[in-house]
Amino acid sequence: MMKKQLAMVIDSSSCIDCKACMTACKVENQVSAGNWRNWIKVQDADFAQSGRPEGADSMHFQPGNCMHCDNPTCVQACPTSATYKDEKDGTVKVNENLCIGCGSCIPACPYGARYRRPDKKIVDKCDFCEHRRQRGDLPACVTTCPTKARTFGDLNDPDSDVARLLKRNKTMRVINPESDTRPNIYYMSMTAPLNWPVKAEIPTPIQLWKFVNPLVWGFVGLNALGVLAMLGKQLLVKDEPPVSVHEEKKEDAHE
Amino acid sequence: MNSKMIKRHAKITIFMHWFNTFCWFFLLATGLGLIRNDDLQLTGGWWSNLMVSLFGSAETLLLVHEIVGLVWAGAFMVFLVFGFRKYVLPFLRQIFTYSPSRDLKWLIKKNIQMTLGYKWLKRLGFTPDIPEQGFYNVGQKLFAVVSVLGGIVIVVTGLIMFLSNILIDNTAIVQWAILIHFVTVGLVIGGLLIHIYMAAISPDERPAFFSMFTGTVPEDYAEHHHKLWYDEVKTAERKAHSA
Ligand code: HEM
User: B28 CA to middle of ligand 1, Å?
Assistant: First the structure.
């Protein structure tokens, strides 16, 4: 049996920007004021564009949330490993008790899916409604969507809705070409906008840490070599101070 | 040989030294266990796995690290306040007082003697006498400075991380604190290796090792290793006698 990989397939062309998913999520997960765990990106129609590329002459709505990536840059940025990729269901999680709220993961997400909770001062984001899944329900945004734009399930189970949709339809992922995190949200055929994910940025101190890590261990190692040299000499070399030292000392003492 | 004992360490200093040692080993073991990011592993993460399974979970590991760290810092704060004039100030005065030419000579010669021996000292063109030292030799003083200043930096950065999800809203400060905490521990550990060798393994310093339990050293050891201090003690004794 393959491991689970929970994922979403989103048909953005059926999204009507009603924001029911955003509201449902916000209530369900008690998301703090001013923050959102999910979103709907909007592409405005551009009638002035010459040649009218497909989709340019109509408005388009694109729902999204944490993409539970296969190459999660947020996990790479986390110094405490509070953020991790759960092997059991393939979701990217935040361990509340390990998160010290340093915020390193926030700019490391190309999708802006993470925020620091103002009350607990730790990081929060979409967890595919873990508490709902535990009692057998779908994520709140999926259940609530009136046009069924969002489909949720295990990618690695060939009988799941997401696997079937992926097999039958042309799908695409929205990525930043400079830092492809291999997201697990798939969009069916043409979706827009595509240019919004930012480049994943791991904060300077965390990058520096990775750089100085071998230097620090190298420094400790050099000192250990020094100790070994002294120990080797202690065990192997018979080393008496020349007699003259003692004699000088005695002369000093007579003064 | 004269084996009369003279006092070197007060009971409270001995206690603080071993309390500090215990905290350092504990905090080092648990702290290294907390580093679980894949890109920061040198050994495939077996140490953190060991620590996590020893303490049950990564959360408990973090919690005990924080508690012992706070107790360690708290105990030193108390010692700092109540022992400032009697113990802390004299100690700081000792470790921050240097005599450049004598101390530099000591560092060069002692390093050669400890690693290569007296024969090489001579071969490299040095005289075999090693400059006289005070209560602490330069090596001890330098390590003491590193561990005092390092300790302060480690406590401050540790507190910043601890308070991060309680008080702090500027996350950049927390990110830098993480890096500085790690690097500073590395610097102190480098020195600590030498310190432990000199204090516990090298036969030359055996009497100093015992003095960290009994508080006293034999006079001839003091005269041979800390001549300037020995002379001070003797002068003080003579004055006390004649008074
Ligand atoms: C197995 C561990 C350790 C042993 C066997 C040990 C042993 C000793 C001894 C014997 C002395 C007295 C030296 C003298 O009287 O001349 C001493 C002093 C001292 N120890 Fe340790 N120690 C240990 C760990 C530590 C640790 C972890 C620290 C701090 C990070 C530390 C910091 C100091 C300092 C600052 C002094 C006074 C100045 C100096 O000797 O450099 N020690 N130690």
Answer: 16
**Which one-letter DSSP state was computed for residue A87?**
T
The pLDDT score that the predictor gives to residue B241 is 86
Which residues contact ligand 1 via a Cβ below 6 A? B 8, 17, 20-21, 24, 136, 140, 143-144, 147, 188, 192, 195-196, 199-200, 208-209, 211-212
Q: Shortest CB distance from A233 goes to which of B38, B114, B169?
A: B114
Residue B95 Cα: closest atom of ligand 1: 38
pTM: 0.92
CA B153 to chain CA centroid, Å, is: 14
Q: Minimal Cα–Cα distance from A39 to chain B, Å?
A: 24
Give per-residue pLDDT as tens, A10-50: 999 999 999 999 999 999 999 999 999 999 999 988 777 66
Smallest Cβ distance to B189: which of A98, A122, A220?
A220
pLDDT of residue A253: 43
pLDDT, tens digit, 9 for 90 and up, residues B108-165? 999 999 999 999 999 999 998 999 999 999 999 999 999 999 999 999 999 999 999 9
A204: chain B residues, CB-CB within 8 Å: 175
Residue at A249 is within a domain: no
Q: Is residue A141 part of a domain?
A: yes
Strand partners, A83: A94
**Does residue A59 form part of some domain?**
yes
Q: What residues contact residue A35 under an 8 Å CB cut-off, 6+ apart? A: A115, A117, A118, A124
Range of the domain at A179: 6-239
The 3-state DSSP class for residue A188 equals strand
* Number of Cβ within a 10 Å radius of residue B11: 8
Provide the domain count of chain A: 1
Residue B242, judged by CB atoms within 10 A of its CB (0-12, 13-18, 19+), counts as exposed
- Residue B33's closest chain A neighbor by CA? A80
Q: What is the CATH classification number for the domain harbouring A89?
A: 3.30.70.20
Mutant choice from A116, A121, A122, A236 vs B, greatest count of B C-beta within 10 A: A121
Cβ-based neighbours of A32, under 8 Å, separated by 6 or more: A117, A118, A119, A124
Using DSSP's 3-state secondary structure scheme, residue A154 falls into: strand
Residue B1 has pLDDT above 60, yes or no: no
Contacts 24+ apart (CB under 8 A), A117-122: A117/A32, A117/A35, A118/A32, A118/A33, A118/A34, A118/A35, A119/A32, A120/A96, A120/B165, A121/B164, A121/B165, A121/B166, A121/B168, A121/B169, A122/A82, A122/A94, A122/A96, A122/B165
Residue A253 is assigned to a structural domain of this protein:
no
pLDDT digit string (tens) for A225-253? 999 999 999 999 888 877 655 544 444 44
- Looking at beta carbons, which residues of chain A come within 8 Å of B201? 231, 234
